[in-house]
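Troubleshooting log. The previous structure file for this entry was overwritten by mistake, so regenerating from the original sequence record. Sequence copied from the archived sheet and checked twice against the printout by T.R.
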Amino acid sequence: MTGTLWLAWRQQRLLILTAALLVTALAVWAALGRADLIEAISGYDLSQCKGWNGECPPETYDAMTESNGGIRLLGAIGLALPAAIGMFWGAPLIGRELESGTIKVVLTQDSGVRSWFAARFGLAALCAVTVSTAVAALIAWWWAPISNMYDGVYWHDPYILNASGPSAVAGALFALAAGTAIGLLVRRTLPAMGATLAVVLAVAAVLTYFRRDFVTPVDRITPGMQPKRLIGSAWSAGYRYLTPDGAQHPLENCLFSGEQLRACMDEHGFVGRVHKVYPSSDFWTFQGIDTTVYLLLALALVALTTVRLRGRRLG
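Regenerated output below.
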């Protein structure tokens, strides 16, 4: 290892070793938690627990409930990981060099500032991908034995949907790129860290809040007063009433049940009820959308950083 890559390693080795220790500790924790979970639920038929309408045996339910806390906590760590990478790895990547003036040493080297940035950011990106992939995989692995089960953690919970799968890895890359670009523009580490946190959280909040606006839910139609189809592991997007022409009307029109509901439906001419849901297969649809957005933003920010490095005086 020589040249700019060796310099990048020396400048980032403490962060890399810290990240390795973090992943190791989380792996041990997840392995122990999953082993306890498997032991607790072994010998029980979990098929009846599937879906929100499941009915688990009390012993199995207690074991699942106890494990849900650990899974949610690991998921919360996964949710916080991109912001941490952006703040503590991305923001100082160039910003600290500019603030301390050590960038002048880089400018005197034959390799040039762009080669230095490519090695420095490339190594950071490789580590961000490795760490985020490992944490996302640990979350999914621990959760898998009791996935989408009664009163547990479901695929559409942020602990799973935001913290596992390819979108978690893409989010880490975006956060790193955002922190790097902000550090270059702000030129001071602490303000850059604060701005990076705000940007990363804002983008994650927008994607989460508007997530269901990007995908059309499936309509489960129940004719007349027949019992509605159980929700299972689907993600509910609300109910509507149906008229003979196929038009859907707000639920507020009939806030009753039993005979009162029947009378209200007859009064308004409703012939059925519609339950809008996102099936569990939409997990990958949402993942694809988030991953695409994060990667496009990351590419744009890396391009911006490269152009700024080329076009401005850094010393």
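Residues 221 and 274 are 5 Å apart (CA to CA). Archived copy saved in two places this time.
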